[in-house]
UniProtKB/TrEMBL annotation, chains A, B:
Residues annotated as domain HTH tetR-type: 20-80
DNA-binding region, residues: 43-62
Top-level taxonomic group: Bacteria
A Pfam family reported for this protein in Swiss-Prot or TrEMBL: TetR_C_3
Protein name as it appears in the record: TetR family transcriptional regulator C-terminal domain-containing protein
Length: 235, 235
DNA sequence: TATGTTCCTGACCATTTGGTCAACATGTGA
DNA sequence: TCACATGTTGACCAAATGGTCAGGAACATA
């Protein structure tokens, strides 16, 4: 179904489109199955069926169940790392934390299956991610923590334990992907839409900033929208 | 559990201690295995080995893998329900929220395997807990939400969306059980001790109360214990 | 001791598991 | 056209899966 542009010379590649398409189908299907059942609980057969391919074909492309799983984890960690940008003491605390929460929330929203895959891996004791957690990620946390502490010293925020703060942001955002079934069950919704996500992001930002006494460096608050929760209230 | 305790005929008491001991061993082992690998990924053989019993014995006591799993879920929901006490508008917001956070934190700390079992169930789409989530739990949340709203109307706290607030507390406390591997990897600790738990509880309480502008009604300060905040701040 | 109930477990079964492989299909460049 | 690489997949395998069952062990009451 791929229409070759006759005018442009086709690249000397082989049947590359098929490969890409099949790999994509497998990765997407596998992410869902692994997220739902964990590494052990997922079967190659189930992944193959979800990808609408024979089991042999899945193994042909991915080599083995473990290789497929590791590849998915790596892809998710890459997405994760993409939002781990660097910050400095000179930055504005309110801005940084706001951006942090918003990006993390978007990651969970844009890649819910990936988020759940990651969660399942950690839940099972992180057998494949030990090194990452103890190395790269730990160093990143420590770097941020130092900045938070310096902000606190300069009176730009309360002297809270920065590691607990980072965990608070991670957990409260991650929740909406990992515990989606619970969230939907309790709210009675079929799915969370963009408006819900914005409202939740605003709520979390508000509580974290206010709760940690974060000062803005008198830059204008970059609010385009103000989805405040409405309560019949009159004073 | 269904012991007819017939007063007429022989009370069929027997070697009851053995039964209790074996069942306990199985439940403990199974909770760990299910938490680690999810329902599908856990094997009866693995549970049997962890309980140091033959596989047949596990099936003899529990009937089936599914019955065992359901029983564990029920046990965890019972623990969970134990901290879902009722509240009213007349209560003190600060007290209620503080107690809520503390109890939830203790639940995660006292039953980490159970917490992870629950998390794995939700992560997999809550196939066995749909009813509970849509029914009992949802009603409880709505009840609390109404109280929070009334508090907000009376100016005792900010008018935040109470459901997001409840999720915030659930997620941020649950995190320390479910993502233990990540927490330990990043902090470099072997385990979180009581002091850590108290510090985290204090941090979360502080951020939530301050972040939601929760007012205390100047009732008497906490009853038995006073978890000292390691952070002192401006009034 | 006799009798009945519960406890215990190795042997077994049908099914599913991850993975291999040979055979064939479909291209691709000469 | 040929030769060769890549794509595709059903058949197959040893191991593990959840579960059954027969039959013996242990125990309690009579």
């Amino acid at each position: 179904m791929t229409q070759p542009t006759s005018a442009v010379k086709t690249p000397p590649r082989r049947n590359d489109a098929t490969r890409a398409r099949n790999e994509q189908a497998i990765l997407t299907a596998a992410e869902r199955i692994f997220a739902r059942h964990g590494y052990r609980g997922a079967s190659v057969q189930a992944i193959a069926e979800a990808a609408e391919l024979p089991k042999s074909n899945v193994l042909y492309y991915m080599g083995s169940k473990q290789a497929l799983y590791v590849r998915l984890l790596a892809r998710m960690m890459k997405r994760w790392n993409a939002l781990l940008d660097d910050i400095s003491v000179e930055d504005d605390p309110a801005e940084v934390l706001t951006a942090f929460i918003e990006r993390k929330m978007q990651l969970s929203r844009r890649h819910p299956e990936g988020s759940r895959l990651f969660a399942a891996e950690i839940l099972g004791g992180a057998p494949f991610l030990q090194e990452y957690l103890h190395g790269e990620l730990r160093e990143w946390v420590e770097g941020r923590a130092r900045v938070f502490e310096q902000w606190a010293e300069r009176g730009l925020m309360d002297p809270v334990n920065p590691v607990w703060l980072i965990f608070l942001i991670w957990s409260s955002t991650q929740h909406y992907a990992d515990f989606e079934a619970q969230v939907l069950g309790i709210t009675g919704k079929d799915a969370l839409d963009d408006a819900d996500t914005e409202e939740i992001t605003a709520f979390l930002t508000r509580v974290v900033l206010k709760g940690c006494g974060v000062q803005s460096r008198q830059k204008a608050p970059p609010e385009r929208k103000m989805p405040s929760y409405s309560v019949r209230n009159d004073a």
